[in-house]
Write a structure and sequence with these properties.
single chain, 356 residues, eight-stranded mixed sheet, globular
Amino acid sequence: MDIRDILTQLTALPGPPGLEAPVVERAGSLLKPFVDNVAIDRMGNLLGMRASGCPHARLLMLDAHLDEVGFMVVGHQEGFLRFRSLGSVDPRVLPGRVLRLCCQPPRFGVIACLPPHVQEKADSDNAIPLDKLFLDVGMAPDEARATFPIGTRAVFDGAAFALGLGQEPGQGQGQGQGPGQVSGHALDDRACFAVLLRTMELLQGQPLGVDLAVLGSVQEEVGARGAKTAAWAVSPDACIVADVTHGCTPDAPRHKTFALGGGPCVGVGPGCHRKLSSGLLEAAKIHGIPHQIEVMEGDTGTNSWPVQVTNYGIATAVLSLPLKYMHTPVETVRVDDMENMALLLARYIQSLEGEV
């Protein structure tokens, strides 16, 4: 499996919260060869099941969300569109960006920005609030209103691309630098769904002691809704949530970020079941897999938070992929971190013998 190709396929399709169907369908076709069956539930979640064949086997669910931060049209003004965010977006990164509007055929708009020549001096150092921004779609007022009615969704535009081409392993300088970096929008969290695909490929044809459910959940960015309903329906004995965490850059606080190239991060804290977390750490040590430890003292900010308290309670762990520039059009990950994350999941799952 070429992880870069998988990322290109998954990020080429729009999937703002509530409108994930195109990427869910593509993800389902990629998952199908590795599971016994694939289904899409009422909420729009993708679910693949692989039975171990062992009598009375426990069920382990692996989750990565497929939605991305996005935008929704809320009004019109002189041919420009007013919009709000779906999920958390920093207004500072928006002026001058290109958005892809989710319609047929796809259309594009640019977020208006004042040139420095006409800005007020007092405004030059301030971020423009989201409700003061406009999307320029290059249309007359009536045409814009008819083409993009209120409720039209949009996402960041742009294809995933490689960083550091031509670098050999070991040539990168500093934390977060090195070979095999990929940048683009929606890597939160489709990079982790690609990890789950790679995990299932590593497990293909291998005997397992537990049944597996692979969840591509929806609406995580607006309240972890898809994972919550799927956890009720599937009712697994345990769940490992694969999501991204903050990657280290020179301007970021070191105690809140993690090195790209340092391997996946195993979560520890009240939202992470101790037996699952310790099992992942033990598998990493036994097999020599690079890894980091992420302290999660409260809400993990992932699907693990609602899954943990679903039904009578589900043993839940968090495994995170370091990512730079979260919730921007240039989210960046390292492919070797993804490979190590998939390897860790596969080796841990292979160590389970009917009990989670």
